[in-house]
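pasting for the record
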Amino acid sequence: MSAPLTPPPPPHEHSPQGGWQSPSAGQVAAAADGSASADGSASDAAAGPARHGDRAGYGWYEQDGPGMKTELREAAVTAVAVALGGVLLGVLWWWLAPRVPLVGDVTGDSWVVYLKDTEGEQAIGVDGTFVLLALAFGAVSALAVFLVRRHGGVPLVVALGVGGLLGSLLAWRLGVWLGPAQDVIAQARDVGKGVTFDAPLKLSAKGALLAWPFAGLVVHLGLTALFGPRDPDPYPPADPYVPQPPHGGFSKP
């Protein structure tokens, strides 16, 4: 018959003399205070996230309103600033676009106007000049918006596209207004029969108005993807200096 095994006492009860002694009253009181403070800290930690979550929730609703208002205000300013660039585009288009030569003639009692060079490509060059300039303006405006506001956002991107479209419309109408008069019969009468004069500035392909917003959105998307701010990694790598629990085990906080 074997004797029952007695479990060893806790380590903190081991005396330096090699004997075993019961804890004193001061040690018991300190241990009680420590456990009470630990329980209180644990309860505060457990209740803390809920209270913090409530406050964070209310704070989120409070901050969401002003944040969205700020983004909308910045988007409106961006759209207006980009659209005003259409003034420069219209002037450049009027200045750089090729001229379409016309000639007036009299048939009976009426004037007839026709192209001097029927095989010329000046009309296509007018549309091509507008498209190239609009693409350049779209790229420059996207770069400027990205440098000013790197965080991007849906309102800012929408404002960039809307501003580019408005700028194209403004440039088109301004170039037509700066160009030759629209009444070609009156011009033919003024210059005389058989005299060459310039045709009114005209944008035949209305799809060219989309070149600016298209280029702006594409360039801004590329800049944001390459150089925009990155979101934090939701699963950061483990700190090598923090001891990790063994494989298959659980760490106790």
